[in-house]
Amino acid sequence: MTEALTPDAPVISDVSGVSGHTPENPVAGGVPLSPEDVQAAVHAIADRSRKAARRMGQANRAWKDRALRAIGTALVENRKHVLEANAKDVAAGRANGTTAALLDRLTLTPARIDGLVAALENLAGLPDPVGNVVRGQTLPNGLRLRQVNVPMGVVAAIYEARPNVTVDIAGLALKSGNAVILRGGSAAANTNEALVRILREALDSVGLPADAVQTVDQYGREGANVLMRARGRVDVLIPRGGRDLIQTVVTNSAVPVIETGEGNVHIFIDESANEEMAVEILLNAKTQRPSVCNTVETLLVHSGATVLPAVAKALRSQGVTLHVDERIAAALGKDVETVPADDDDWATEYMDLDLAVAMVDSLDEAVNHIRTWTTGHTEAILTNNLANAEKFIAEIDSAAVIVNASTRFTDGGELGLGAEVGISTQKLHARGPMGLTELTTTKWIVQGEGQVRS
Question: Region Disordered: start and end of each range (predicted)?
Answer without folding.
Answer: 1-32
